[in-house]
Design brief:
99 residues, mainly alpha, 4 helices, elongated
């Protein structure tokens, strides 16, 4: 997978709505940018925590898995996503809707 970039365009109306709740200077929208960055960071952190918890338990309960569980994020994700029993959210949802 390559790096993913997403450009977000907010209308003037949307910026005004966000500025009602977010600490934001409309001249540079730094507050909106900080909020977007924080939202992405928070989602990534929560997804990582769930993945780590789910797969640490699965690996520990898998009698056929005898290697060490990686202690760093990159190696852990590489190990998990290379397993034949790993499925992405889309794959899990698609499989449960068949039939």
């Amino acid at each position: 997978m390559a790096n993913h970039e997403k450009k977000i365009t907010l209308t003037d109306l949307q910026q005004k709505i966000l500025s009602n709740d977010l600490y934001n200077d409309p001249s540079d929208n730094a507050g909106v940018d900080a909020w977007i960055d924080g939202a992405i960071t928070g989602k990534l952190n929560n997804c990582w925590k769930r993945m780590q918890q789910e797969w640490t338990t699965k690996l520990m309960n898998d009698d056929s898995f005898t290697d060490a569980i990686p202690s760093n994020q990159a190696d852990f994700v590489a190990l998990v996503t290379a397993r034949s029993d790993y499925k992405t959210r889309k794959q899990r949802d698609d499989a449960s809707s068949i039939g």
